[in-house]
Write a structure and sequence with these properties.
Strand 1 (6-8) and strand 2 (15-17) form a beta hairpin. The longest helix is centred in the C-terminal third of the chain and has 16 residues, at 77-92. The protein has helices spanning 51-57, 60-67, 77-92, and strands spanning 6-8, 15-17, 22-26, 32-35, 44-47. Helix content is 33%, strand content 20%. It is α+β, with helices and mostly antiparallel strands. The strands form 2 sheets. The chain has a 3-stranded antiparallel sheet with strand order 4-3-5.
């Protein structure tokens, strides 16, 4: 039996199960967006679905470090990411 995949939140730096985190991806244009299905191409970064962690994670410096390239945080901000996750989680049920 293998352990569930673990990832580190770029906001709080805690290691958590991958399924408990939100995946962010950097598009070819440098814009970062939420990867709802977890299958978007490219390098991903993970963040806890909590306002504090998202707020820290969406700073360009942290995103740039995680993606190893300059990034533009999502224009919608942390609240929109959290709202999108809540809506998508309800739709899956």
């Amino acid at each position: 039996m293998t352990a569930a995949p673990q990832r580190t939140c770029i906001g709080c730096r805690k290691v958590r199960p991958k399924a408990a985190l939100v995946r962010l991806v950097r598009g070819a244009d440098g814009r970062v967006q939420m990867d709802d299905g977890g299958r978007a191409e490219g390098r991903g970064a993970y963040v806890c679905p909590e306002p504090g962690c998202l707020g820290k994670a969406l700073h360009a410096g942290r995103l740039g470090h995680a993606f190893k390239r300059p990034c533009e945080p999502p224009a919608s901000g942390a609240a929109a990411i959290l709202n999108g996750r809540v809506v998508n989680d309800k739709a899956r049920r």
